[in-house]
Amino acid sequence: MDLFQYRNNELFCEEVSIEQIVRDVGTPCYVYSASTLVNHYKRIADAFAELDPLICYSIKSCSNLHICKLLASAGAGFDVVSGGELYRGIQAGGDPAKMVYAGVGKTDAEINQALDAGLGWFNIESVPELENLQKITAQRKIVSRAALRINPDIDPKTHRYTATGKKHSKFGVAIERAEEIVKKYAKHDYLRMTGLHLHIGSPINSTEPFIEAIEKVLRLIDGLRKDGFEIDTLDIGGGFGADYTKDQSPVSTTYAAAMVPLLKNSGLKIIMEPGRSIAANSGILVTQVLFEKDSEEKSFAIVDAGMNDLIRPALYEAFHFIWPTKIAQGMLPPVRSERPDLPNLKKYDVVGPICESGDCFAHDRYLPRVNRGELMAIFTAGAYGFSMSSQYNSRPRAAEVLVQGNLTRLIRRRETYQDLIQAEVFE
Ligand code: LLP
Q1: Which atom in ligand 1 lies closest to the alpha carbon of residue 388?
Q2: Stated pTM of the model
Q3: Residue 336 burial (CB < 10 Å; 0-12/13-18/19+)?
Q4: Using CA atoms, how far apart are residues 28 and 22, in angstroms rounded to an integer?
Q5: Which of 279, 312, 340 is where one domain is finished?
Q6: Is any ligand 1 atom within 6 A of the Cβ of residue 239?
Q7: What is the pLDDT of residues 176-232, one digit of tens each?
Q8: How many domains does the chain have?
Q9: 62 and 189 part of one domain
């Protein structure tokens, strides 16, 4: 459920019409619903309440400071993957002690930055990284905590670019090697490696891969505990799905029903790292139709957003539901369906202005006939939308707007041409 709803044939975010927002900020723009963000966070917290987990919102999914701040105020910690995300999390008012830091290539500068900040957990991805972290904590005489990321060799049944827990992935250490690594490295004066970490991919639209991964890692923890090693924390990562199409993803309570029974008597502090399940349906990308172009073979709806604004369709062939923000009577969109059963639809490729054929938001999509100047909403764009956007083709990045009730706040202004060149050293 989200708070992007049609009222009197017009799309609203909470209490504000999209048209009103566009009058103020133009297109393309991202519009987020604050209440949806917080509701999604709370839904996860409620579903998993029995475990009292630390929920670390995955900053990479949607990184705007206002959104991070909103979630921190709701109780979230942060999952970060770079010094920049750590900086962002702190700027947003997040507590570094409630942050976890994953990533296969943390630099010494980033490690020092995290130690200075008092980071909660380093999620360790390899033995060389572990040795380096032990060296730095010992040199600086700073006590810190770490969780070893386990690669359980499980197929999350998602796009190959976002599957992270299969054997040949660059992430974590093979589960078969984990015992030997913990035994060799766990006893250290400064680095307390008393946790394990999992993140097997994203999005995972079923519970089975999670169950399989957790069961495998619990067996590992059992063995380690029997040998006298203290493991007190398990970070189960992110990866919950979102409804790009109707009912595509299990709801939080379904994930919880599968996972909580496995974990509740484990004596482990549980950490979670959801991103998409909080942010995806909390945001849309609004774009304007520039032209309708008919060729012999195809019709194109040419819009003013491009793959630089939302790269998911180009990169993963991801499906995003698209519909006009103002509709004729009777054309209420069927909830995120790939082939709406409505009269007088026309088949379009919805494309952007960028000089690549991959700059296409939808192939052969059935839409009400488009008109120049009308606004289209690209739904489920809150996660990995703006955060993956770029200035490719020297296109200033879009504006971001956060709506709460009837209040609208510009949380990132549209970039200017000056912004495009300001970091370039040119005299
Ligand atoms: N934790 C770690 C260590 C991660 O690498 C990720 C996502 C998450 C948590 C959050 O996963 P989520 O709950 O959002 O599924 N750009 C892709 C998704 C890449 C995910 C990268 N890691 C997309 O647009 O689908």
Answers
A1: 16
A2: 0.97
A3: buried
A4: 8
A5: 279
A6: yes
A7: 999 999 999 999 999 999 999 999 999 999 999 999 999 999 999 999 999 999 999
A8: 2
A9: yes
